[in-house]
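## Example record

The block below lists the input lines for one assembly entry, exactly as stored, with component labels intact.
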Amino acid sequence: MRSTSFARVVSLSIAVAALAGAASAADNDGLTLPAGFTATVVQEGLGGGRHLAVAANGNIYLARRDGLVAMRDKDHDGKVDETLQFGDVKGTEVRLFNNWLYVSDNVGVYRFPLKKGELAPAGPRQTVVAGFPLERQHADKTFALDPKGTLYVNVGAPSNSCQEKDRQEGSLGQNPCPILEKYGGVWVFDGNKLDQTPANGRRFATGMRNAVAIEWNDAQKALYSVIHGRDGIDTLFPALYNAEDNATRQAEEFHKIVDGGNYGWPYTFWDTKLGKRVIGPEYGGDTTKEPEAGKYPAPLVAFPAHWAPNDLLFYSGRNFPAQYQGGAFIAFHGSWNRAPEPQAGYKVVFQPMKDGKPSGEYQVFADGFAGEMADNNPRNAKYRPVGLAVGKDGALYVSDSQKGRIWRITYAKK
Amino acid sequence: MGMRVRVIALCALWSGAALHAETPATSPPASQVPDSVAAGQKLYARHCLSCHQADGGGVPNMQPPIAGGSWVKGDPGALALFVMTGGFDSAQRKDSAVDNVMPPFVQLTDEDLAAILTYIRQKFGGGAPAVDAAQVAAARASIPR
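Predicted structure tokens for the full assembly:
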């Protein structure tokens, strides 16, 4: 009974919000979406956003490199009207888990208790894990949590391809790559335990250059990631590859991440032109030479080079049509390393899935974020999608790293 | 001259500040100026563009801009030295606004480096004087072995 009346209140507020947003969102804020979908701007922009989380009561939590922000829409007009900065954590990840808000910066994962009626957590901030080495490259400690509270932390490799000299022309790859001892994989911790150090973690999977987009799939009871692939094959090994090769061949690989898995970085990459895994030029690759069969898995999907997958979300909300159930949304932040070829990415893609496996070609779901992007330079992108979240009502939220804009995307049958 | 380049080199390596200082640019005699802007543009595309981009604007948080900086139009010796030694040893590294480190381009010839520097000075340095191979060679000689 209680749940019925709650559901009614929720659906009423959805209807009201939809009406309020309809006029201002006629053009979907310049975004292109499939028929029946509408995008409204819930937050104009607070400065560069990263990932976001949406609570059951609609409160939004946005991670930023300038610190965390909590926001809500008190008058239910579809726009945020109360914004609070809180905590002293400058980073990328933010997730709700039970009555906790988990966040991270480049060296640790922390949590705040979320009390009823409280928008910004008053604290105190607890440290779950701290002490990851401070790096600059691929340093965002994004993470996922399973229902038991197991914490899966992406520890990106501070390197492009583990060359003896990072990104130096002709420099050979280190084999074995010593970076993999502490980076380039996923480490697991007990997310319910406090004051852990990296030494308390266990390497769950390896061979992952930077798994920013990492997500636990409840239905499949498994971890998934879309991994940032390597770049620079042309500038580093010009005798083997040209600029067009660099712009197109090194896949962004979508994998199910299993315990003990090895996804091939830095020794190999998935070549989208050849449709197979090849040995990287630093490791004796000649553009076609393959690693030992079965050593590294093929990706579930090989996404185009350098699109920069920055968030992954499996949809199980109740707003979108049936075909979206169980499928994956991926926020592609967009390339810088395709230059001089045209930059690409800058869109939210939907990958249909059934039983945890791709069940069709990926579809561009939301596009038009970047605008005209003068000079082919990412700096001039109007917006860059970076984070994804689903509200209790099934709406998809997308955050932007250029201005901190947040959109709410909903579906209504025509 | 050699001494001066070495002093600048040390500053560049250990303080990084020299790169940003407004040092009067010395122009080589006209006869030594290579007609290399077109060649420099090609070499820029090949070695520099993917990071610093076609417009020299860099990529926020990733690689710094060349355009608009004071060092691109400043002392050619300091500029050549930085391009040859890269950013790995820079003391400023930890305070840098960008994540990626510039690799050394010491493998390029004096002529190719001169062409690249001439191009970026013309295109992104407000038409700062060209750099010739002898200036690059002098900077190269100053690199501590």
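The interface with chain A takes residues 45-47, 49-50, 53-55, 57-60, 62-63, 86, 88, 93, 96, 98-101, 103-105, 107 of chain B (CB under 8 Å). The radius of gyration of chain B is 14 Å.
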